[in-house]
Amino acid sequence: MPPFGEPLATVRQDGPRRVLAGIDAAARRAGLRPGMAAAQAMAMVPGLHLVPAEPDADAAALARLGLWCLRYAPLVALDSPDGLLIDIAGAAHLMGGEVALIADLFARLERTGLSARIALADTPGGAWALARFGPGGIVPPGGLATALAPLPVAALRLSPEIVAALREVGIERVGGLMSAPRAPLRRRFGPEPLLRLDRALGAEPEPLAFLTAPDVPQAAARFAEPIGSPEVLKNVVADLCARLVPDLERAGLGARRLDLVFRRVDRLDQAIRVGTARGSRDAAHLARLLTERLPRIDPGFGIEEMTLTASRTEPLAERQLSGAVLGQGPAIADLAALIDTLRMRLGPERVYRLAPVESDLPECAVRRVAPLSAPSGALWPADLPRPARLLDAPEPVTAMAEIPDAPPLFFVWRGARHRIARADGPERILSEWWVADDEADRVRDYYRVETEGGERFWLFRDGPMEAEGRWWLHGLGEA
Amino acid sequence: MLPFGAPGLDQALPGGGLALGALHQIHEGGPRGRYAASAVLFAGGILARIDGPVLWCLHSRDLFAPALARVGLHPDRVVYCETWRDAEVLPAMEEGLRHRGLAGVVGELTRMALTPSRRLQLAAEGSGVTALVLHRVCAGEAVEPESTAARTRWRVSPAPSDTDTNRHLGRPRWRLDLQRCRGGAPGSWIVEACDAQGRLAVPAVLADRPAAPERALRRAALR
């Protein structure tokens, strides 16, 4: 290996010639391209390091990378020699959405020294074109035609001969191919250009050969007659889960993530991926999680094979029993099944517990923790009364106090005037200096007040009265 | 059965306390029904006295957990889910109610019709998990004109606290109206708000008095 930063290229034999196979970024900057004669490249870049290409090792590395990409989605296909196609439909929710998934993938590849161009589109062909010939990035659903139009026709995975022939009749861009009359195109160039175009745009489906992960607990069912009705699918899911659980049990594992792949008769595979909050071997629970997602699956003309894989597992020692069965009181840990179901429906970030944070600022006193994290036992200071409702943003009120540092006599909030019968305060809160924008925002004098009707409010003044501090309403109710 | 420990209250309820494994409705009296700032603490105080974890289905981001902890509901016990709309709250509640071992499920709802209330009541009966619906209604909006399958319906309103404290704040007080109760009698009480164990108390001054003022309140509630 040459020192980092110096141009490097691999060389393969092409008949009598030695040509460049792969080049690194430095070599690309120096003007080299794959397919160039090695002698010409050496003449152009004197410091070029040449090493023999190892296509077999490259293919093996790509396959390894493909298996690693199963972390993102259950359906990954190799696009040899240097690409991967990942079908993230039904899986992006577990990674926090498409944008987060792409960002994570990019960052992890970069950390391992791999440069990558990533595109996300409705079809494999569209994503391929945009990653290799376009800007990459995410194409919103339905935006593929617009995104592909300016790309050269080679982006449709056409053979060089057809690209050259199209150029002769003046079609250089995908947009040109889209607007050209179809019948003459087919007569002159055969079915390939239109098929590739239709696949890229999604008008024609594209079957892919997806990778399967080795050495993970798996259960598969093949059907003599293709199936498709929701009830049958549901039964198969239950059956697969029941068969997977003994495997997990033998290995002492609990499933953290399940992939269910549906092989359709037309070879258009679909998949469901679900995650659990903690390792589980409860067949009924796992089946319920998968069944919730079943409506997203389009069986097409029928499904002939289903494969259930526990693609992520964690050690789970003893037989799973709920705490109630063991005679202990009910505990948070027994809620795993309920929490999985709610997270599945609402999104993982919308189910959580709250825990205390040591902060004087009320809005910073609470943080979210994972719903099944171990109970901390921590509490907020017991001696400070707090409002039942805390407004997301304090609302300005007009208030009047007789003398400095006395609680107000009345305040006007949202047009309604409230006479204050009783009050306590001030409780002075100094915000952390790194939170406040300027000195004036740092002091808050909180008053707990009760109106004549008995309603309790939490008011504060954001500065001393002599400094013309303004009044705000921050909370309602009190405990 | 969960007694409140306040004699008048428990006598009005069949069995001498709040029925567990059943659906109860709670809403806030007064102009700020949308915040239900007293009702939320009344619900917290009930759950504080039942063993087990709690599922809380949120309507908006304004619940302040430190206050719940102060009525005895420890944050370690509560799982929150952000179900912003009624259409999300109801199925989440039902899911929770099917889960034996929970102390209770709270759902913050703007309205509840008869059919969903039946589903919740059935699920609660089936599992023994107590369901509390916390109504968040806008000022002036009628609460539940239609009847529901809930066992009880409570209205919690702020009431002036002890006046003898020389303009300082004593323990908050609520006016508690039991507006509907299957097999029991409606009634109204002035109570001292939940303490750190979630217990209500009858104010000493009122407790000493004869029952006359209470009857007057009761009539007012029935009108």
Give descriptors for this structure:
heterodimer; A: 479 residues; alpha+beta; six-stranded antiparallel beta barrel; four-stranded antiparallel sheet; 19 strands; B: 223 residues; alpha/beta; 29% helix
In short:
In chain A, about 25% of the residues lie in helices and about 30% in strands. Chain A has helices spanning about 25-30, 40-45, 55-70, 100-110, 125-130, 145-150, 160-170, 175-180, 180-190, 190-200, 230-250, 285-295, 335-345, and strands spanning about 10-15, 15-25, 50, 75-80, 85, 120, 135-140, 220-225, 255-265, 270-280, 305-315, 350-355, 365-370, 390-400, 410-415, 415-430, 445-450, 455-460, 470-475. In chain A, helix 5 crosses helix 10 and helix 12 (about 285-295) runs parallel beside helix 13 (about 335-345).
Describe the 3D structure.
The complex is a heterodimer of chains A (479) and B (223). Helix content of chain A is 27%, strand content 30%. Chain A is α+β, with helices and mostly antiparallel strands and 479 residues long. In chain A, the strands form six sheets. Chain A has a six-stranded antiparallel barrel with strand order 14-15-16-17-18-19. With 223 residues, chain B is α/β, with parallel strands linked by helices. Chain B has helices spanning 7-12, 39-48, 65-70, 86-97, 114-127, 204-208, 212-222; strands at residues 23-28, 54-58, 78-82, 104-109, 130-135, 152-159, 173-181, 187-192. Chain B is globular, with a radius of gyration of 17 Å. The chains are: A alpha+beta (479), B alpha/beta (223). The interface between A and B is large, with 59 and 61 residues.
